[in-house]
Amino acid sequence: MKMSPDDGSLKNTHPKQGSLFEGASSFEVPELPAENRSLLPVWDRALTHRLRVLLHTAPLHELRSGDSRRDPELRHYDSIALTMKVFDLIIDSAGLDREIDRDRVEKELKPLLTQMDVAAGLAPDPSRHDAMVDRVLGGLRNDANRRRPFEEVYTDFEDDLSAQPRKLEFRILVDYHHPSGGTVLRLSNEAINLYLNALELDIEDAQAAAEAVVSSQLLRGRFDEAVQTARNARWQSLRFAEKVSAIIRETRRDLSRVDWREAVPKLLEEALIHLDTRLTIEQNIINAANERLEILDQGDSAASAVAEVSRLIRDCRLRHVELHHQLMGARNVFLDEQARQSFSSVPLTPHPNLLAGILDPVLRLGRKDSKTVTDDVFPSFFGGQAPSVLSLSDLVPWLLRPRRESPQLEVEVRGTDLAAGGIDRARFHPADRARVDELLSELGGPVTLSVLIARLRESGASPAAVELTTLTALHAFAPDHAESLPLRVERLPQTFSVSGFYGDDLTLSPGGVENDGGE
After folding, report:
1. 490 forms bridges with which residues in the sheet?
2. Alpha-helical regions (H) of 296-385
3. DSSP letter string over 113-172?
4. pTM value?
5. How far apart are CA 387 and CA 351, in angstroms?
6. C-alpha radius of gyration, the chain, whole number
7. CA–CA separation, 427 vs 280, rounded Å?
8. 3-class SS at 93?
């Protein structure tokens, strides 16, 4: 081979075609001339990618280096070994009804922690095990930085070789609220790839690679290894389904956050092609496994391994069939949400970040200061508990919808049966009624409702008597038509809250007036 002087391309000038594949002795790679060495990139983009891959292991190295800095009674525990067990537990339980939570992690790690105690010559201690589990989970969740993403700074090089500092953010372990209740632990995609040795592959490529390896291992009779690879393929199927489900969930939540113009249609098209290929390959793997099972003896350990491979791949195939139906209806979800959200009101100001902007600052306060804040704001979180009769936020979008043609129907108009309202005194105890009547008859001058209720409480009156007094005052403030009342009631600008009633305070004066129903 020699370098062409005009375009710098490599041309094979060896007289014998195919000598490149016939032996190393018939082909030598010449050294590039000095004037052409500048054509090679000084920094390849692949180096940046591999650098980012290595940085994902930084939290694990930090966790391992902290083994020697922990309390003396915890230094004999191997945090990396415990971390790998946590990864395995979470991945193995993914997609099942019962996922991993903190209590189950401690239960599964207890045998390992006990053996580490025995190796160090120490008696097992449950409190020490509990502290070590918290250390491991805290290091994986980044508890030291309030569970924010890990940040690693590295140097990247542009095309002109200018050095640019960049920051990589990622997570390892996150808490997830399970639909059945409670909090479970889940790994991020970076942690899953780190565990499955597939950091350089995306979900689709990693799944295709795993299934190809399963086929190869079945052909070569490496059945035990094929089981583990099939488990990896099953996990990649779960991740692929979650990737599509996350897009649909985000579309239903806020259509503006999803790129349905270019990115999502392209992803859906590629996903359908990917599923079509996967279903064919998975069926071939199942057929190959069934053929192996016909040859192997039923009691053979290899037969059990092949049967497990067949079960796992069948599970992958079932999930892909379900995902195919979901992909086929994804565009309809987009159209439905576009029609629904087009009339939804958009807030003029963004909502605050409740975790970073509100909860974290309060948690950093002392107990005394934080109690002052929570005591002041908690009543505002609940407010009045009136029954939900009308929602204005739902009414306005409903009124702005396009008009629909309504069928012509004759509806009988019936008159409204109106009845006078009042206080049902019969439901109160006679003693409470007598006490309230006596209290109101003894009024010698104007008195506020809040002061009157305070007197009742000091005298040991029951809550029912307090409620009847409040209802009597409210009824006197807004009486029925032509009703003679023993009190005159006026509203004050100050407010009061008692016995479930909240509103403006009232001034009660003795002396009945005849209400004529006027304003």
Report:
1. 507
2. 301-328, 330-341, 360-364, 367-382
3. HHHHHHHTT----HHHHHHHHHHHHHHHHTGGGTTPPEEEEEEEE-TT--EEEEEEEE-S
4. 0.40
5. 26
6. 37
7. 74
8. coil
Question: How buried is 27 (Cβ within 10 angstroms: 0-12 exposed, 13-18 middle, 19+ buried)?
Answer: middle
Give the other-Cβ count within 10 Å of 176's Cβ: 12
164 DSSP β-pair partners: 156
The number of C-alpha atoms within 13 Å of 404 and in the hemisphere containing its C-beta is 6
Say how far apart CA 435 and CA 458 lie, in whole Å.
14
The number of beta carbons lying within 10 Å of the beta carbon of residue 159 is 9
Q: How far apart are CA 67 and CA 111, in angstroms?
A: 19
Placement of tokens 């790129």 in the chain: 259
**CA–CA dist 78, 67 (Å, integer):** 7
Cα–Cα distance, 218 to 292 (Å, whole number):
8
Query: Residue by residue, what is the 3-state secondary structure of 172-233?
Result: CEEEEECCCCCEEEEECHHHHHHHHCCCCCCHHHHHHHHHHHHHHHHHCCCHHHHHHHHHHH
Per-residue pLDDT of the chain (519 residues; tens, 9 = 90+): 334 334 433 333 333 333 333 333 333 333 434 444 444 467 777 678 778 888 888 888 888 888 877 788 888 899 989 988 898 888 877 766 567 888 889 999 999 999 999 998 889 999 999 999 999 999 999 988 888 899 999 998 887 888 889 999 988 888 887 777 778 888 887 887 777 664 445 566 666 666 777 777 777 777 777 777 777 777 777 777 777 888 888 888 777 778 888 888 888 888 888 777 778 878 888 888 887 777 777 767 778 888 888 888 888 888 888 888 888 888 888 888 888 777 766 666 666 777 777 787 888 788 888 888 888 777 777 666 655 667 788 788 888 888 777 766 676 777 766 665 667 777 788 888 888 888 777 777 788 888 888 877 777 788 888 888 888 877 777 666 555 566 777 788 777 776 666 777 788 877 654 444 433
Instruction: Please report how the helices 189-196 and 223-253 are oriented relative to each other, as an axis angle in degrees rounded to 10.
Output: 170
What the block records as the tokens of 330 is 């994804």
The distance of Cα 239 from the centroid of its chain, to the nearest Å, equals 15
The string over 87-108, giving b where at least 16 C-beta atoms fall within 10 Å of a residue's C-beta and e elsewhere, is bebbbebbeeeebbbbebbbee
Total residues belonging to the chain: 519
Which residue in the block uniquely carries the two structure tokens 């739902």? 394
Task: Please name which of 174, 158, 175, 177 lies closest in space to residue 166, comparing C-alpha atoms.
Answer: 158
CA distance 87 to 189: 12
Report DSSP state, residue 21.
G
Domains of the chain by range and CATH? 2-40 (no CATH), 48-195 (no CATH), 204-341 (no CATH), 429-514 (3.30.1370)
Per-residue tokens: 87: 């990864």
DSSP letter assigned to residue 359 = I
